[in-house]
């Protein structure tokens, strides 16, 4: 089974909300580590979550971070990602056992990095069936 952030990144790339997974241009998406380049990039992080109520039903959380030299471009990309994941998408990732994404925050500007690039985050709780093979 892949991490929830990994499955989210693959879904976003497949939906065209980001560029290629691990790519180098066109808003590529990464997992767990934001690369220094390219400037315009999306990164997904596993951020814990509440334990599931049932043995096989889990509720992990994922944070999606968007970085760009342009404040507006970063916000627009974050909005496209939000639209791709909300409303919850049922069985959105074949073989990944994700039943849907529920927003736990709105798009949030969190400041600028050391290179003066705008940073935005979105946070989601995932409904995941851990009994399904990935």
Automatic annotation (TrEMBL):
Pfam families: Phage_tail_terminator_6. InterPro entries: Tail_terminator_phage. It comes from the Bacteria. This is DUF3168 domain-containing protein. It comes from Rhodovulum sulfidophilum.
């Amino acid at each position: 089974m892949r991490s929830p952030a990994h499955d989210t990144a693959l879904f976003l790339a497949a939906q065209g909300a980001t560029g290629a997974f691990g790519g180098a241009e066109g808003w590529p998406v990464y997992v767990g580590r934001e690369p220094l380049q390219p400037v315009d990039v999306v990164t997904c992080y596993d951020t814990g979550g509440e334990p599931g109520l049932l043995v096989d039903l889990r509720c992990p959380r994922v944070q999606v971070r968007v970085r760009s030299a342009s404040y507006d471009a970063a916000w627009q990309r974050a909005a496209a990602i939000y639209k791709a994941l909300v409303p919850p998408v049922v069985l959105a990732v074949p073989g990944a056992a994700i039943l849907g994404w529920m927003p736990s925050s709105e798009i949030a500007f969190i400041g600028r990095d050391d290179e003066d690039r705008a940073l935005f985050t979105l946070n989601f709780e995932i409904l995941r069936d851990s009994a399904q093979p990935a």
